[in-house]
Amino acid sequence: MALVPCQVLRVAILLSYCSILCNYKAIEMPSHQTYGGSWKFLTFIDLVIQAVFFGICVLTDLSSLLTRGSGNQEQERQLKKLISLRDWMLAVLAFPVGVFVVAVFWIIYAYDREMIYPKLLDNFIPGWLNHGMHTTVLPFILIEMRTSHHAYPSRSSGLAAICTFSVGYILWVCWIHHVTGMWVYPFLEHIGPGARIVFFGSTTILMNFLYLLGEVLNSYIWDTQRSMEEEKEKPKLE
């Protein structure tokens, strides 16, 4: 039996994301006042994705509790739709975008923090909030993947969706540069047009890879658990 029910974990994670978002939005930074506001940063978009995803998870848990044993076919049909939406969001957005933000941020930060998170930001964003935005996303999504099985969409539709998101965000970043003359991320100022094309292409490929990684990881976790349960059942059958 789990030490903490997964339903309680989801509520706690949702509340933590709400707290992070509220604290981040309360910070008065110059970049928040410029074109695009917070929505130009993938980190902020990811936080919204994670909060919406865990909100759907909590709503699914509540709906499941309310429909249990009711025998109402319409309620059960609505619950199945909610579960499908939850699973789609984890597969296409929450896992690949969340892991991308954590991995890319800390890799660039380790190489040269001024390229991604200038030291000046320490005057505005406390360390705990930085980790809330760029670190805890990974363990939270892995906890969700471990505690509940998620049905992935067909590979072609899943990859098409994550490609659409990736290209859409790249176009958004380029549009902001077109309007303001400034790149959202400092390191884009220091590389040439060809290198930017390579970088944007690489990020799209990486997003697709992370989608496939999530699919494989989800299957591995639940295939392994199913095998363990079958092994436990064998002595009882014998």
TrEMBL record:
Recorded topology in the membrane: Multi-pass membrane protein
Major localization class: membrane
Residues annotated as transmembrane: 42-67, 88-108, 128-145, 157-178, 198-222
One GO BP annotation of this record: long-chain fatty acid catabolic process
Coiled-coil stretches noted in the UniProt entry, renumbered to this chain: none
Family: Belongs to the AIG1 family.
Gene: AIG1
A single MF term (Gene Ontology): hydrolase activity
Catalytic activity: 9-(9Z-hexadecenoyloxy)-octadecanoate + H2O = (9Z)-hexadecenoate + 9-hydroxy-octadecanoate + H(+); 12-octadecanoyloxy-octadecanoate + H2O = 12-hydroxyoctadecanoate + octadecanoate + H(+); 9-octadecanoyloxy-octadecanoate + H2O = 9-hydroxy-octadecanoate + octadecanoate + H(+); 13-octadecanoyloxy-octadecanoate + H2O = 13-hydroxy-octadecanoate + octadecanoate + H(+)
Species classification: Eukaryota, Metazoa, Chordata, Craniata, Vertebrata
Protein name per the record: Androgen-induced gene 1 protein isoform X1
Keywords recorded for this protein, A-Z: Membrane, Transmembrane, Transmembrane helix
InterPro entries: ADTRP_AIG1 (IPR006838)
Compartments, as annotated in UniProt: Endomembrane system
A cellular component annotation (GO) from this entry: endomembrane system
